[in-house]
Amino acid sequence: MKNKIKVGMVQVNNSFSGQNYLPLSLGFLVSYAEFHCKNFKDFEFLNPIYKRVKVKDAVEQYKDCDIVAFSVYVWNNNISMRIAKELKKVNPNILIIVGGCHIPERPEYIEKYMNDNPYIDIASIGEGERVFTDFLEKYPTRSWDKVESLIYRDGGKLITTPQAERIKDMNEIPSPFIEGYFDDLIKDNPDESWIGLWETNRGCPFSCTFCDWGVGFKKKVSKYDLEGRLYEEIDWFTKNKIEFIFTCDANFGMYKDRDLPIVEKFIENKDKHGYPHALSVQNTKNSNKVSYQVQKRLSDSGLSKGALIAFQSLDKKTLKAIRRSNIKLDVFYELQAKFMEDGIKTFSDIILGLPEETYESFTSGVSKLIDMGQHNRIQFNNLSILPNTEMGDPEYIEKYGLDIVENDIINIHGALGEWIDDIYETQHMVVGTKSMPGEDWVKTRTFGYIVGFLHFNKLFQIPIIIAKSVYGISYKDIFNKFVTENESKTGALSDLFKDFYQHARDMQNGGPEFVSSKKWLNIWWPPDELAFIRAVTEGKIEDFYEDAKDILFSIFEEKGIKDYQSVISEAINLNKSLIKLPNQTKDLEVKLNYNIWDVYNSTLLGKQTLLTKGNFNYEIDRTTETWDSWEDWCTKVVWWSNKKGAYLYDCTAVKSTKTKNKVMNYEKIESEPFGDDARYQ
Prior knowledge:
Blueprint lengths: L4 E9 L6 E2 L2 H13 L6 E3 L3 E3 L3 H8 L4 E5 L5 H14 L4 E5 L7 H10 L5 E3 L4 H10 L11 E5 L2 E4 L22 H6 L5 E5 L2 E2 L19 E2 L2 H14 L4 E4 L11 H15 L4 E3 L8 H13 L5 E2 L7 H6 L7 H13 L4 E7 L6 H13 L6 E5 L11 H7 L2 E6 L17 E7 L5 H19 L4 H11 L3 H11 L6 H17 L6 E3 L5 E3 L1 H11 L3 H18 L6 H14 L9 E7 L1 H9 L8 E9 L8 H10 L10 E9 L23
Parallel strand pairs: 1-3, 1-4, 1-5, 2-10, 5-6, 6-7, 10-13, 13-14, 15-16, 16-17
Antiparallel strand pairs: 7-8, 8-9, 11-12, 18-19, 20-21, 22-23, 23-24
Helix pairs in contact: 1-5, 2-3, 7-8, 8-9, 14-16, 14-17, 14-18, 15-20, 15-21, 16-19, 17-18, 18-22
């Protein structure tokens, strides 16, 4: 009997909280080939490599293969190329074929990629299913000239074939879930906890220059059928007890007739059978009524813990340069108010280092978003140049003066030493532009850390909101004051903030995005989160509040505002009393002279409540949630609350009596101190 052609498949994904992703790209390739390849029965497909393993183990697994195919992107290129290189050393007859989003599509770039990696025999460019099938059919003859979208070696030359058209009918691609591609993988790895990567459509109608979906031929959106496909795949996830589903769609929530029914199907399955536990989606860029309904149903059902309302930038010149059509601000304000009223946490994201952005426009945009109700979380993402994006073209880089450095990719909250064989993946990060020179970039990056630390980590959010809502001091003025004041001062707060500056400068020199800490969970922390941990655990919290109060008071003095001290002091003390900490054994009753808690909460809900003098009693619930150790607190409060913004205890009114609407004398809040220094050792 004729020996079958052995095929190894590699799609290395990073693990997430001990879970691993099912290799969807490989599933598409093999499922399509099984239905469309004329000689499919001649091939034997081995179980894929789906996570980081030692190179020697990968080589041992596939050294006797005839073909090894790699799905490559920015997060796995280096380890994939190392495995390919070592396989070629051990068995020069192995044919190495690569594909995926990392493979350059411009001719000069793909030739350089092939020359830099001489152990690659063939590269597939663009969408891979049909190309891979054609490749398999031609494998017996080794004649690739009729296979579209390839670059291959012919003697000492590189030959490129014409670009193939995209698959128009997505149902032409059989489901790897329904057709059983992952069955053996799951059976052979019984102890594995899986994340299901999932695609309901392919393409994106937008043209953002920083995204590889913005390329012209990818703009058309093609969809899979609901009946007979997507609903059955959801049933497959449920049957196989896949806890977490991550959708690969660029714009989930755009299509009323599809996306809402999909969510309802997930809810139905979860309610009946307990699975899946969570559904993560990339919310559509043009957030609307449909996206609100989608996000609300996800949140109400427990499938999601919050809604992303994406912006990237609020500057008109920047949006034009990146070809980004943002959600309208009035729509954002409306959605934000609805989500808050429904008790649904939202978060937004801003990209630092975009073309035409300046320190002034960036800080104005951030302050605008906060002013419009985003008090939960803004993610400040560093701009990286991805393969096959318009932003990566030399002409674009030169036009906007993009200063680019290469640094290691570090997973947020990733374990130290998680890169097996010390093979790090790298990214190309923008650390300066014509409009935002290097030092301005450092200052802007520091601004983001400071806003995260003070406002979104909730350490100083209450007095900041009171200063804005009661006294009219802009968020921008407050944050800028904290940025500039700490450049020349000393003290607990300045020490933390100077670390922000230094970390930004280190990134400019190719350093990592995050800060390592062996002491605190042995992971990589965002700088603002680690500063939060340090302030509390090193006994610096009282000094922090004194320093922060001095800076905030100085703003009032500069603006000539009178009679603010008692109100702001009370707001600071209330904020301090509400910070979640471990080892709390009893609830705390506080007595306020002003309705600060009501003013604060009204602002969070997009409403307005006047500051009122009176007697306001509240109980702070410190015992419903408890953490037995600082490590437990670091994990569940600082880390897991990152997007939820759940850093403050619940606070409930006990009783209140109002007097006249006039800010008068101040009586200190009756609260407990954080404790003895010994608690922080």
